[in-house]
Design a protein that fits this description.
The chain is an alpha+beta fold and 172 residues long. It has a five-stranded antiparallel beta sheet with strand order 4-3-2-1-5, with helices on one face. It has one domain. Helix 3 runs antiparallel to helix 4. Pfam families: LRAT. Keywords: Signal. This is LRAT domain-containing protein. InterPro entries: LRAT_dom.
Length: 172
């Protein structure tokens, strides 16, 4: 009986670990705190499992919007290398069937190429409320620019910008 329990627990742990592993196109996030205001927010990106793009460096494992960096002087979408242990898988819209159905490796790859070119030509620049890292990550994964943390911040502050920013109510 003890052996059966051990086998069951082992299988459960193995299956759980495999389910939580990062895969190409997963949205990843890390909590950060703004030094000047103490405001906590999440930074989002798209996980890249291997080198798939011409402009992607050999060690680059994320595609994201960033602020001032050598690779993106004025802020833009870039391929970058991050310490993946600091990030967590955050495909929160996968909980909604209509969004889960939109996930496609081909579409993710197409959207990364599209956004990279737009950023390179300065057609797509970072903007906190309408074009941030969460908008980019959700657009690449699902084809829609959505930022729930911006919507939450605006709802908390009592402002009426919600409809302008594609802030949708999700029952998760």
């Amino acid at each position: 009986m003890k052996i059966l329990i051990l086998i069951f627990v082992t299988l459960h742990l193995v299956n759980g670990a495999a389910e939580g592993e990062l895969q190409y196109g997963d949205i990843i996030s890390v909590s950060k705190t703004c030094g000047c205001t103490g405001f906590t927010y999440k930074h989002y990106g798209i996980y890249l499992d291997k080198n798939r793009f011409d402009k992607q460096g050999a060690d680059d494992n994320i595609f994201h919007f960033t602020g001032l960096k050598k690779k993106a002087i004025l802020g833009g979408c870039i391929f970058d290398k991050i310490n993946i242990q600091n990030y967590e898988k955050d495909n929160y819209l996968d909980k909604i069937e209509n969004y889960r159905k939109k996930v496609s490796i081909e579409e993710i790859t197409k959207r990364i190429n599209e956004k990279y070119e737009h950023c390179r030509k300065k057609k797509d620049v970072w903007e906190a409320f309408s074009n941030n890292c969460e908008h980019l990550a959700n657009y690449i994964r699902y084809g829609e620019k959505i930022s729930l943390q911006v919507c939450g911040l605006l709802k908390q502050s009592g402002r009426v910008y919600i409809l302008l920013l594609n802030c949708q109510l999700f029952d998760m």
